Amino acid sequence: MSYRSQYRDALDESTGRAGMVARRLGRLVFGDYGGVFVFLLTCTAAMVLWRTTYSINDNLTVANGLVALSEGHLHVDTPTYGETLETPGMAKYNGKAYPRNFAHIVFALPFLWVLDGVAAVADVRIALAALWSLSMFATVSVGGRLVGRHEWGHLLGGVLALGSFVGSVSVATPLLVDHHAYLALQLATLVAAAVSAVVIYRLLSRLYSADVGLAAGVAAGVASPALVWATIPKRHVLTALFALLTLFCLYRSREAGRIATYRRYRAAAYVPVGLTAWLNAAEGIVLLIAIVVADFVTARENGVRTLATVAAGFFVSLVPFFLTNYLISGGPFTPPRMLDRYGSDAIGARVTGGGTASSSGGGGGGTGGGGTGSGILGGLIGDAAAPLISTIDRALLFTQFLSHGLEAIQREPGRLYHTFVRSGYLEFSSPGATGLAINVAFLEALPIAGALVAAPVVAIRAVVNRVVGSGSPAFRSRPVFAADVFVVIYGVLITLLYIYRLPLHAMLTVRYVYPLFPLAIYVIARLRWVRATVSERPLWLAFSYAGAVLIGGQLILITVVMRDYTADETIQGIALLAITITTAVGLWSLLAAFDRTNTSVGAILLGLGSGLTSLLMAAFAFLLFGRAAGYVLPMVPL
């Protein structure tokens, strides 16, 4: 055999191995082509709304933190973004400034390396336009495969991708950025939002069918607030992803037949807890309580080996959290959020240079705790007990947040209404506004969640059936029961954690409870009449959504231009339409709960509600932030 033949055989073998590894990795992440489609569709849609300017001034803190980490240190010396380090979330220890949300910063670091590598050989804006065109091609191509029209999908995707890329190159101007850190944060959040949609798809595909999973995944990706938050680099998208991963692993553990698989997935369900704590300690505690209760209430067995495996997974996940805290404050239990704030005017600082800048009002989990938190007990017991006392203090602080939430609901039940039903005009509306709010409530942002009004009917029936003996005696052992328990507990706790401060300025779509949006889509898909609608009327559902976006979007645009509506008025008007659809979806769902299901009506309402959500997110991106927002894709502002 010649040297050339040997080289060719070796190359073919290595290529085959690489392909096998890629396929295995693809199955691990996406499951199948449906998961790939959901991921690509979410990325393609979210990139259209991608802006280079800052939406909320907390972004400056995290972006400067990423710059510092890329330079090899945790503290921030000088502001690469903004004119000062006195921004929300910047902490001070020994005279140095430290950012928060280190899980987000570390997650974005590889994306920064890639962008820097691309910038060394090509124009970043052209490269991102090429990435979007390739994503569009792959989305259409994979979609064609799913409907049995692979060749047509390949051809159509190629034409669209080529046309978009040529158009982008013809109108592209240089992307004026001082550093790629902010773009990396956005790209990381975008990928996290897309993976969240994939997790929803994979979970519901295993629970029911591929068509139900696909509809839920698409809704989570492009018909929910993920569409706008994907490129606003806040922690909430990552918080939702970690909660969804815990939910998925919990379900897989209960579904597993082999004890080894059961233990592996049960331990994996605790890994996102430590990562969430690394992102935000209070949200990590919420996730921990939810998984512990749901896990041990529904556990198959709690043997020594199983518990040891679970404990190992949990404590390994906490290593980044403890290590980061130790390197910054000298104590593993004191995250940056518990340190003194850097500067005294952080909340009042505003971002300049385009777009809409808003103060975030801080975040849950507490800031300005100061020191080790040992307090009076530490002085009485001694410094050796400081770590234990610090942990107790953190737990007490967390319970205070929950108690504040309960008190807020009792004293001001209107908080729940303005957070979940109707935002309306509140006194913290943006300066210069015409009297209509720029924030929307939960149901205004996700009208299809109106179907959840019938969820208590389903729950009550399940309990009654079990009491009278007609239900399954093994109900608690069902995998979906564990998942449901987790979702309910997590939803209640995350609401109590933040409701005492909601609603507040710069929420857009109640971002503090953002994880409830994908979890709501999971619960919606658990309703049998919703699943029947998806299975029996998929074309009605698809055409209703497309009609709402394409036709409804044009009608809204014409109305805005003719009436000269402001961004606030437009967003508020869409929110009112959304509440109308929410009410109709709720009535349809209640009737269906009492065996009066009309899948045709349901498909139309669910499609219209999903379409309004997409339009509302587009209104936030294009109208609220405006042309000066500096969109990444060259063709978008035209």
TrEMBL record:
Keyword Membrane attached: yes
Entry keyword set: Membrane, Transmembrane, Transmembrane helix
Residues passing through the membrane, by range: 33-50, 102-122, 128-148, 155-177, 183-204, 211-230, 236-253, 265-294, 306-328, 436-460, 480-500, 512-530, 542-562, 574-594, 600-625
Protein's UniProt name: Uncharacterized protein
